[in-house]
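FW: tagging you since you asked about this chain on Friday. Here's the raw sequence from the shared folder, copied in full. Didn't touch anything.
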Amino acid sequence: MSGIWTIFRRELAGLFLGPLAWVLLCIGLASSGYFFVLGLAGTQGDVMSALALTLGGGWPFWALLLVVPPLLTMRMISEEARSGVLEFLLTAPVSDFAVVFGKLLAAVAFMALLFAGVLFDGLLLELFGVSPDWGVVWLGWAGAVLASALFCALGLVFSAATQTPLVAAFLAFVANLALLTLPLAADFFGSPPGGALRVALQQFDVVFHYQGSFLRGLLDTGHVVFFVAWTAFFGFLATRFLEARRWR
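HL: got it, structure written out here
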């Protein structure tokens, strides 16, 4: 655990010492505020609908998850491998597991800060005398962090598999897009409602697992396990790619 904590602090500090993290944070917070105000105007002041728009109930949330994690994780391993820093890191007294999951925790912490904009929106509403349903807001934020962990872990897989950050970002973006649009394959193959293919693909539907629990203010352990299990799987896969680098 000490190795993970060391890598986490190193990586998080490195993120905020570079311009990319600040640019992504500004874009994410600005878009969250913009679509929140837009949602208020479009729903005639429906507070929870406006908050839901920035917490998985609309495309702005998923657009951020599609783009930000690949840009955030693309340099974490691939750039260090290309510059030679990774060789030094792999000879340090830390395991490959600690390297990958320390970097993953740093990326997730950044995404948690990015999505904290919705908490600020809720606080503003509270100050103006309109109290949102804080149970839904906090669970929505927690779900956003869990979903971010999955996409960040997937980004680390490609960062560990390639030595070019832009290639890692592109491959992660394509994989994220495929993951989000996977349920549409049931329509492509003409699977009827309740059909075996549609039911099977629904088990891998990230949007369904998020909206079916967190966005409704309900804590369903089945949906939590979905995100934790797939995050752990992609983290394990990234660790295997990193181990392969060690033996090259």
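FW: The mean pLDDT is 83.
HL: agreed, and Residues 2-246 form one domain.
FW: great, closing this out.
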